[in-house]
Amino acid sequence: MGEREKRDWIPLLLLLPTLIYLIAFLGYPLIETFILAFTSDQGALGNFKRLTATGEFWEALRNTLLITAVIVPLQLGFALMLALFINMKFKGYTFILYIISIPLALSDVSASLMSYTIFAPMGYLNKLLMNLHIIDRPIYFFGFTYQTREFWVIVLTEVWRATPLVFVIILAGLQAVNKEYLEAADIFGFSRWQKFTRIILPLLKPSILSALLIRTLFAFQIFGVVWLLAGRDIPILAGEAYYWQTEVNNSNVACTYGLVIALVSLIISWAYLTFLKPGHLEGEVTE
Amino acid sequence: MRKCLVVGVMLVLFVVGALAKVNFVSTQLVPAAERQFVEGKLLPEFERIYGVAAKFLPLSYAEASNRIEAEQKAGKVVVNLYADLQSNIDRLASKGFLMDMKPYTFKGRTFIKTLEKYAYARGIKEFIPWLQATYVFVVNKKAFDYLPKGLRKEDVIYGTEKWTYDALLEWARNITIKTGQKLLGFPMGPSSLWHRFLHGYLYPSFTGAQAIKFDSVRAVEMWEYLKKLFKYIHPSSSTWNSMDEPLLRGEVLLAWDHTARIKNAIVEKPDDFVVVPVPAGPMGRGYIVVLVGLSIPKNAPNVDEALKLIDYLTSPDVQVEILKESGFFPVVEEATGYIPEGALKILAQGVVNQSKTKDSIVAFIPSLGPKGGEYTQAYRVAFRRIVIEGEDPASVIKEIGEKIRRMFKETGAPIPYPDVELY
Question: What number is the ipTM of this complex?
Fold first, then answer.
């Protein structure tokens, strides 16, 4: 009996380091965040009232949602096309695969700085256009008066930087597709489009869901690229949290922003998992 | 546990006190590299020349103040030289803890008058100026080709009465007309020091104060001026946190920033740039000075030795040594003569020229503690609402002015310079 009791404790003991780690580095900061967000001179909801009373919060929320809504479908579309292309396994496809994957190794800071050197007033693009006598003065892409241009530079940078992640996930899913299904489809006389929509896409659904979930959550927490390229010209939620913490030194408002990001992320994850739940192939085909 | 720690620290300081003739507590030159410079070079050299042993005790602001206060209250004074920011020294002097430095003079140096006058308060001389840091304008020499009528290069370099904010507006307009580009730049990014320009430069220059005239009629005129100037400010300014890079890339020809944040540009291309005083407004030439002073606590032992260390630390060549190793500039006029030609000379010359201007209005950053961030945020919000979003200046500053007054009331922070001089 005693021996058995001892054995029962062993798994729990093995879990202990992880548990301590989670409590120390996730649990404790989370509780502190809640406490700070709900502490203010104007009652428990004071920080939330202060937040929603400013135009900056709504602008940040709108911009964050807009960036996510534009970036994620673009990344998914490009990644899907590239994965299908690479999966044709033509001669020298591995070389192209490496080229596509290069941005995976780049941090958001490096990607932003590279982007800045291209689009800056004295950057490569302006210098090229001026040398070709297409323009005689630099085109400005950054600054409060050029928010639309800034927005599209951010989209371009982010799509370039983060599409490979979606691409790798989808390519892995694509390579796991059982060839027998496709051979059977050939026997039944499926067209290429039919094979794509009736077999490949349903089988890719778990990969697409993972990629979408990861990318949407990351896009919602976007910070470095916007902060470096646009500062607070285009306020975003994570940027505002950082600004209130480091520049205004108000941890309460910063934590309130943090909680809003967490809440919206939770809603997005729930929506994905509920509405895009992958079914079994057999189920899909018989339907 | 805490008691043990205090007793331990006291013991260490006591032993140190028994060994050295000068126990030098400082809240400045605390970072490891700077500390090493003081302990490894500055003080050994002092000991060699004067034959007096000195011990450097770098402490935080709170530790240093508490230390001086505790020694005074206990009646057992060990620290006989204390370096800190003007505002902290003033607070201790207000409690009667510091010696009057009036009787002491130091040969072979002229303290910059604009700075030295802040040492006099409550009928005594609270400290001897030691170091300063500030924010200045940097001019790419190409910009002198576009000077407006009536403004000469020398006016800008020496900060004469002709180098005004109106002249800056004309200059920036001229540059835009002739080059087709907006080449005046300010660091307006989220981590920049743009708020310092608003509360420490424009406000004192236009209203004579940084906070108490926040919603005055003159403040409305200031905001109207900034709206006009804004038309000629480089549009990417809102993304820049420091001006060294835009200056080096040639994106701007005129820029304002903290000396530490433009140093790189001058060091890399010393022949391209000149550092000049800031322009003056209708009330004078407002600028922020981070001023560090040296003072001696009351009833301190070995006062003569402490005075020798002051003599050494304020000597022109030592001031230049400190400039080379840190971001602090000399407070004695003669120091510029000891700076080797090159980047540092250009920087120091600009800083000294600015401090020597006759219409100077020196502003000190207020000690608002945890409300410091909200104070600077208030100026940034006013700028965004008035200049970028086009709201009515009078109503915006009335609303925000109320908040600023409340900050001083809630924290009990003393009214800062130059505001205090208006009372």
Answer: 0.71
